Amino acid sequence: MKKRIVIVGATSGIGRALAIELHKRGYVVGATGRRVERLQELEHQLESRIHTQFMDVVELDDTINQLHQLKENMGGMDIIVLNAGVSNYQKESVGREADLHVVDVNIRGFANLTSYSFNLFEEQGHGHIVGISSVAGLFGWGLNIPYNASKSFVNTYLQGYRQKANHSDADISVSTILPGFVESEMTENKKGMFWVQKTDKAATQIADAIEQTKNEAYITKRWRFVGWLAKLIPNWVWNRM
Question: Within 10 A of 158 (CB to CB), how many other CB atoms are there?
């Protein structure tokens, strides 16, 4: 039986590229997002083994109902990739409301789907949760405070569920994916970026990490050096950057 994978946040960037890459590898793909026209375009492009579902992760109860409907249409779910996320990097609309919107999407929306999926996988006896985090989650940054903090939450949250999975009778894997800079709408027009990776190549490496059920994977691998360096820099240095 072909594995069935749901990708939450598949209308652009890494999510869309990953849906295409995994479809090439023979997976039955379920794609979600808020932009219905882009989901329809993806359906037309892939033609078969593709199911789509509107989803706004901020609407917590609706999200679970929509995931359940998608899972039923696919005949089940073996893997879920939690990719939906937003950033307010250097935008004019920064402040309380913008910060809370990032928290709603990147933390509450993420936790809602992770906890539901874990319980589902325990009931069915197997499953794989893949969270798309970021190297940005390894440090605080004044230009993108809520985004970095939300990805830090993702890292710790998944670590906790990975430990929980190790004590479960079910065969559950939990993977944390930490991309560096990848071409997408989120990184468009950002200044000071380096090692910017093509979306397709990033998707290929993420797909490899999923198939290898890695606990943690940096995309690309050289970003592991940045992660190591970030952990070594003392707080007084960060505070003066």
Answer: 24
| Side-chain-side CA neighbours of residue 206 (13 Å) | 33
Contacts of residue 86, Cβ cutoff 8 Å, sequence gap at least 6: 101, 102, 105, 106, 147, 186
**Centroid of chain to Cα 160:** 17
Where are the domains positioned within the chain?
4-240
CATH class of 4-240: alpha beta
Quote the tokens at residue 19: 């849906």
Which of 141, 145, 156, 82 shows the shortest CA–CA distance to 113? Answer: 82
Look up residue 185 and give its DSSP letter. Answer: T
Instruction: Write the pLDDT tens digit of every residue in 77-123.
Output: 999 999 988 876 555 556 788 889 999 999 999 999 999 999 999 99
